[in-house]
Amino acid sequence: MHDTTLSAVGFARARRDRAAELGDILVAVAERSRTEEGCLESLVHRDLADPDLFVCYERWASEEAVARHLAQPYLEEFLDRLRDCLEQDLIVHRLSLAGPAPAPVASEVRDVRDGPTEPDDPTTPGR
Fold first, then answer.
1. Is residue 119 a contact partner of residue 46, using CB atoms and an 8 Å limit?
2. What is the pLDDT along the chain (127 residues), one digit of tens a residue?
3. How far apart are CA 31 and CA 42, in angstroms?
4. InterPro entries attached here (predicted)?
5. 3-state class (DSSP) for residue 93
6. Residues near 110 by Cβ (< 8 Å), separated by ≥ 6?
7. Of 7, 51, 60, 61, which has the most beta carbons under 10 Å away?
8. Residues 6+ away with beta carbon under 8 Å from 44
């Protein structure tokens, strides 16, 4: 089976004293992106050694999902607000998997209908 997922990694460097504003904008866009059909993941990270640098990671189900996302009207407003906060142009790398995705580990998969589990409870199913 051919994997159609696409990922994007974006690097955004804030202008001096604009990092908090830039971070707020990026997080708001990530939250909105996560509501879109085909968005599998949308995260914003802040570099620990360089607090003016943000790294955004998105994973989409298909090229079509990315195209729908990029056509969203709210993105134009986002880009206008973003430009005011950036020290340099946003750098985006689009990625595809270089090999097959790993299968989920059995211990990571459980039915949420089983309710919460206590990590040290020996009576927890599967222990």
1. no
2. 567 899 999 999 999 999 999 999 999 999 999 999 999 999 999 999 999 999 999 999 999 999 999 999 999 999 889 999 999 999 999 998 888 777 766 665 555 555 555 555 554 454 4
3. 7
4. ABM_dom (IPR007138), AI-2_Isomerase_LsrG (IPR050744), Dimeric_a/b-barrel (IPR011008)
5. strand
6. 117, 126
7. 60
8. 23, 26, 27, 30, 54, 55, 56
Packed helices 73-85 and 19-33: angle between N→C axes, nearest 10 degrees: 160
pTM for this prediction? 0.76
Burial bucket for residue 16 (CB in 10 Å: 0-12, 13-18, 19+): exposed
Identify which of 100, 96, 105 has the alpha carbon closest to the alpha carbon of residue 1: 100
Strand, helix or coil at 126?
coil
**Token couple for 26:** 């990026």
**Residue 39 to residue 33: CA distance in whole angstroms:** 7
Please tell me the distance from the alpha carbon of residue 97 to that of residue 8, in angstroms, as a whole number: 11
In the chain, which ranges are continuous DSSP H helix?
19-33, 63-70, 73-85
CB count in 10 Å sphere of residue 25? 21
